[in-house]
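Q: Got a minute? One more chain.
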Amino acid sequence: WLKKQTQGKVRVDILHEALCPFCILQDWRYHEARRALADIADSSIIWWGNAKDTPKGIECQHGPTECVANRFFNCVQYHYPEKRLDLTHCFDYYMLFIHTSHSPLSLENFTAQAKNCSQVLGLDYDVLNTCANNDEGLRLIEIAEQATIPFKHKYVPWIAIDGTHSTVAEHDVDSFVQTVCDAYKGTVTLPSICLKKGSADDSEEVMVLERAGHCAN
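A: Always. Here it is, folded:
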């Protein structure tokens, strides 16, 4: 279910966790760029982040709700790969502009927003919720864990271009676009986003937030 690299395309791996504020901000700001680069790049978001597999079970950096959210997003990628970016973008909007409290997101609030975003996008929430809460969701989160380990990441969000960590791509949208465009060696005509500067769609609301940051591992 993680995207396989298509011959000739750039491989982009993004390590995220559901409730890291910097992952949410980056996912929101990079959304349109990832879409625009789809002809030359295969992007995978790996929802494990800084979680730990302990004798007591999986422990997530931002608490039990994040563990549920990570499983849910992995289930979205598996069952609705064509909608995976749209659903997390919907969730990002809620976290950035509606959930203004500094308190941790409750499971009840996450469930309500997951239902809302599923409905807006025409996804079957019951299928996704069942996946997230049974052996299928556990299998997918274990795959995400195994996919994360080789990167030996020190924080999230963490971006690798063709298997190599790129701090430049993490800096901002334009740097991400330029890094992917420069890495492409195929024969497809470069998308227009590669040919212009200032490609980021920076709303005033997002620009007041910190531009770069990490959740340390």
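A: The first strand starts at residue 10 and ends at 16.
Q: Perfect, thanks.
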